[in-house]
Amino acid sequence: MTGESEALGALPEMTGPRLHLRAPCDADATARMALGYDPTILRAYGAEVADQASYTEARAQSWLAEQRQAMAWMITIDGRLLGTVRLHSHVQADRRAQIAIGLLDSANLGHGYGTEAMRLVLDHAFDGMGLNRVSLRVLADNARAIRCYTRLGFVTEGRERQSARVPGGWQDDLIMGLLASEWSAQGDA
Fold first, then answer.
1. β 169-179/96-103 pair status
2. Beta-sheet strands, E only, within the chain
3. How many CB atoms lie within 10 A of CB 53?
4. According to the model, what pLDDT value does residue 167 have?
5. What is the sign of the dihedral through the CA atoms of 40, 44, 45 and 49?
6. Closest to 8 (Cα-Cα) out of 93, 85, 70
7. Using CA atoms, how far apart are residues 18 and 104, in angstroms rounded to an integer?
8. Which residue of 16, 92, 93, 100 has the fewest CB atoms within a 10 Å radius of its CB?
9. Domains of the chain, CATH where assigned
């Protein structure tokens, strides 16, 4: 089975004002294991913090393999791993894909790193790959992520009611989308 990154060609490296996006490498498993599970990050994904054991080497290797099978970029600053951003569910005939981002350490939240990483990948998605649409899903109570996505121009297009099982019950997912014309108009403004 061919991974999505292989099907879409080699990942270009991208550099922004503060961070660098690159393809996964062997050292990322060690860096990921050192970061472990961050309770703030887990809660943002709707995961039960108490259910998470220590982050093992086997889990880190599995995580790295998942990144290599996806069109995933490692978000780094001065060589230090901050997280990942990836395009997935690419439908070439419709010129669309979904985007997902995950910072791995809550100390990196609120500094604009996620917004910068998303901008780089969105530029590549629309200008480099010629996509017409990029969408995402986010837990309805993840206000920090929703602010980031809205700042980038994503529009809430729908709500899937009780689609995510989270500690204490259910939560809705918001479906957000961004069109190439909307992204282009931001650059013109």
1. unpaired
2. 14-15, 20-22, 71-77, 80-91, 96-103, 133-139, 155-166, 169-179
3. 7
4. 82
5. positive
6. 70
7. 17
8. 93
9. 4-188 (3.40.630.30)
